[in-house]
Amino acid sequence: SNLCTRCAEIDLDTLLSRPHKTQIGQLAKNLSPVSKWEIDSCALCSLLSSTIDLRYWPSGSKVPLRTYSSNKMGNKAWNSINTNILQVGESERYIVSQPEGMEGPVKIIKAKIEEPNFDIVKSWISLCQNKHTKICSIEKHSSVTGLKLIDCITSDIILAEDKPYLALSYVWGLGTEDHKNLKKLPEPLPNTIKDAIIVTKKLGYRYIWIDRYCIDQKNDEERAYQCGKMDLIYQNADLTIIAAIGEDPSYGLPGVSLRERKPQHLTICSSVGKHFLISAQSWSEKAIEETKWKTRAWTYQEGILSRRRLVFTEEQMYFECYGMYCCESVHFPLRTMHRKDMQGFKRVFCSENLIGIFPKGVGTKSIEIVRRIEEYSKLNLSNSSDILRGMLGIFGAFQRSRLDIYHCSGIPILPSMAQGAKPIEGWMPSMGFFLGLFWDLQERSERRNGFPSWSWTGWYGPVIWRWAYDTTEPNIAIDPGVGLSVELIDGQ
């Protein structure tokens, strides 16, 4: 391929063969300012420029070119393959030397998702279903009475009756549809809903659960009942499709139908000398960190409660269950990344408390219930009165788990194990409630009407249980002689 004078002087043979012993790699060269790159005529200039956002590089700034060994990188998934990588600037889009050409781990991302890519997603689901028989299976199946599903072939809304189904997590937006026929999908449908139905069928399923159509929004009793069963609704779904982009359901799922992926996210490859170089958009939590979906209180529990998630971002599809994660752009060796029992990834490929970007369920320790409340309290609600309703799924999951933790108006009734490593003799539920009351506001706040002042639900803004961060014994003493009585709404 044609190279400019500068790129012809870059010794790719050395850069792409030398091993690196640390995560920081090695500075290969400070490239001339972007304004001097011959992007239209030089294959390597074009490839390098495709990985960075040119707007962030002033015309006079030199751009660093670094090399890494993939098995030493901080991005843990890359540790599973052995190749050398080029990084331009501080971009998270890398350039990979792939001797196998298109047969290598880095795959082409196109504007539209093609059938083979959906086949790959089906293989991820199948691997999870067949191998993660302990961590991703349902120990005790509990149905949700009156649950309705959308038939993606007929557009009918029918009773679930234990049919396998997918679920959708998305941003509702400000507008709501007023559809009177509760047995049939309305027309026209928002793009995200249409695309989710297409994906459901592409993955070999017929039914999907979407809250705005499967819950009668004008039936307060039905809405209250199903909001309290969100843990079961999302847990029972074989997969949750997460529309992580868009301000409302009109946006669509990039690559599925009308909305194509943007040019800056597509894969570029080039043969330079004897090297086949390809750009790789590795998965990063940043892909959803600044999306509206990530800031919404309702979608928080939907992501956590789902056993398997297929996340749609501007760049690509990403899959994560309780045992593994994988992405469309780089096909890592999933089976060799698993432990011997095949129940999930080896620890070296996971973060401390996460598999990929999601926690493994609501939590396995009683103290994690206050962590979930703290995270939830930072998020946004369109309707302030939903503050408790948006957490009921997570509370339900803790209640139904072996931890058996209940709550009162959002205050967790903690077991003695939450206070320290050893159970405290004579611990009573009232003492657990008192311990749960030791929350604090992280900033000045205002009262939220309709909720008690002693509960975090009665205030706006993020909350914290400071004692829960004490690595030794919390400096809290609870008098077992203090009684507690609660009056219910009906006067009991």
Entry keywords:
single chain; 492 residues; alpha+beta; eight-stranded mixed sheet; six-stranded antiparallel sheet; 15 helices
Fold and architecture overview:
With 492 residues, this protein is of the alpha+beta class. Helix content is 23%, strand content 15%. It is built from 15 helices and 18 strands. The chain has helices at 5-8, 12-15, 43-49, 115-131, 191-202, 211-214, 220-227, 230-236, 286-289, 292-295, 297-305, 334-337, 368-377, 392-400, 429-436, and strands spanning 26-31, 63-69, 84-88, 93-97, 148-151, 157-159, 166-169, 207-209, 239-243, 269-272, 275-281, 308-312, 317-321, 325-327, 406-408, 411-413, 440-441, 463-464. The chain has an 8-stranded mixed β-sheet, sandwiched between helices. A 6-stranded antiparallel β-sheet has the order 1-2-3-4-11-10. A two-stranded antiparallel sheet has the order 15-16. It is globular.
Task: Briefly say what this structure is.
The protein has 15 helices and 18 strands.
Kindly report the spatial arrangement of strands forming the biggest sheet: 6-5-8-7-9-12-13-14
Tell me the overall shape: globular
Secondary-structure-based class equals: alpha+beta
Number of helices: 15
Q: Over all CA atoms, what is the radius of gyration?
A: 25 Å
Characterize the biggest β-sheet.
8 strands, mixed
Q: Average pLDDT, to the nearest integer?
A: 89
Question: Distance between the terminal alpha carbons, to the nearest Å?
Answer: 82 Å
The number of E-state strands comes to: 18
**Strand percentage, roughly?**
15-25%
